[in-house]
Amino acid sequence: MIEEIELDAEDRMQKSIEALKDDLSKVRTGRAHASVLDPVTVEYYGSEVPLYQVANMAVPDARTITIKPYEKDMIPKIERAIHNADLGLNPSASSDVVRVPMPELTEERRKELAKHVRQMGEGTRVAIRNVRRDANQDLKKLEKDGDAGEDEVRRAEKEIQELTDRYVAEVDAILDAKEADLMEV
Known about the structure:
Pfam families: RRF. It is a single chain. This protein has helices spanning 2-25, 75-84, 107-145, 150-183; strands at 41-44, 47-50, 55-61, 64-69, 92-93, 98-101. By secondary structure, it is an alpha+beta fold. The chain folds into two domains: 2-26 and 106-183, Orthogonal Bundle (Topoisomerase I, Chain A, domain 4), CATH 1.10.132; 34-101, Gyrase A, domain 2 (2-Layer Sandwich). It has a four-stranded antiparallel β-sheet with strand order 3-4-6-5, covered by helices on one side. A two-stranded antiparallel sheet has the order 1-2. Strand 1 and strand 2 (47-50) form a beta hairpin. Helix 1 (2-25) runs antiparallel to helix 3 and helix 1 (2-25) packs parallel to helix 4. The chain is elongated and about 70 Å long.
């Protein structure tokens, strides 16, 4: 029973880290990255679909994303969808490709994004600590119900704390890397 609590806590902490990584991948740095366009949906035969389902995206250089739709008549719709997504991007269409140049980030915008990234990281730290709290409550309940001894519960609480410390350190490392990426000119 104690092992199940520990495994569940570790699994939930790992999911918090994965969610943070996913959220951070959507924060635009100065370099082109296709995941910046993940929130963009395009009208395709009457329904809204993600951009990646109607086009092939590539990053030919550090400042440009190219979008090659599977059907040429999608080019104006893709261009309009990127404009409407309010990502601060200005796509330009040619005969068979939409090019999306990534504008240079200003110093002020970099600092705003770094602050936003730190807030995201703090949210993840709080989530990890909440997992620790829930696990410790479950352990106390086991002890109270007589399903586990006091020594076992103390050992498990210590392991949960070590797990928490390890995942919080991982969050810090991820945030440091993202901030360095953001502040790089």
